[in-house]
Chloride channel protein
Amino acid sequence: MFLLIMHAVKMGIIGGLGAVVYVALIGIIYNFIFLGRAGLVLQEFAYSPASRWGIGIILVPILGGLAVVWLIKHYGANERGVREPDILHFVHPEEGKNRYAIELAKSLASTITIGTGGSAGWEIPITQLGATLSYLLGGIKNLPAQQRLVLTAAGSAAGVAAIFNAPLTGVVFALEILLFAFTLSHVVLIGISAVTGILVWKLFHGDKTLFHFKILPPDNMLLYAKQLLLYIPLGILVGLAAVLLMSGISWFKTLFEKNIKNLYLRHTIGLGLVGIMLYLLMKFFGHYYIVAMGYAAIQDIIDSMLRNIGLILLIFFCKLLALYLTLGSGATGGLFSPSLFLGATLGGAFGLVLQYCFPSMQINIIYFVVGGMGGMLASVTGALITSIVFILEISKNYYVALPIIITTIVGTWIRIYFYPKGIYTFKLYQHGLMFERHKL
């Protein structure tokens, strides 16, 4: 057991460093190519200033898309689009052999996608990178298959925990999504790795939180209890939005593949339209809003700084379309943080409508924002427990627990009813690859 603990610490160091390097690469690319300045730090929680390229910003996502095509074509085995299902391929004991170059190329491709303005998330690529580096550099190749599986998942957990400063989220993500079945010793090993990953991250980035929540306890608990019913329609909305997101990406992917055979032309059109949206948003509304993860917009909605329902819904649909165009055209990235963005905008708009229509109900919008974030994340990923734990851990407030639970359960049920194939498994269904639940 001592040897496994040492391996877990090593996985945490590797996963944490992988996350640091990954984010630094995005910072370099984004600052230099998108903004036209030198810089290592990615200010993901602040709105980007207007790019010095002006209208030429439209070309930046195109250049990124062309680079991604070349990289994936030559080193990534032509594996494009949403990254999530690849995690299951890699951590399974019988899958993912001899894929190191492919996985590293795909991780680099996702940094280019995000750094040049494409709409995608970085969390799952970081997870994939943590698993790849842990397996490649961790010295675990000669261990039994079950131990390799757990320690590879531990490296992924370290990356997730690091970028969110949320160790429980990293642990639960690994257990719920990567392992399927586990024992107490596996929980301990993954927990050690997650905490180690956070410590490594803090050496470089300090102790900053993902979002800043100012959640006050309900003034009237009876009114709070009655308002819990309002999270049922919110859950229905996020569930339908998840169906719209997942089916839309699949539809756009088919549309691009059938009508535009040339990969370079496909990315030029898809990412060019994303560039046009970015330019128009900056020109008419003062911010890029939907670029990369969109964390600054989420924080504004949390702080009630963004209260224009029309604008919130506009950036919701712009983000949705940007995801269709980015991932549908074949650029690579995840859907974790985009789900948070879509959930925050939908929950914020829903809360504002309630506040305007029923002023006597004392609607606290932030409850609906976090409910929307958790509900959308659970609906898209199918990771119900991870989503609940994640929102509770980053909000550090348990008054939102019931709203989150209701929204996630209803949203996930709606999504499964209309679109049963989860984002982590729909590619596996397409290829006839579904893994057994191993007893580890």
About this structure: The domain at 2-205 is CATH 1.10.3080.10 (Clc chloride channel). The mean pLDDT is 86. Residues 2-34 form the longest helix (33 residues).
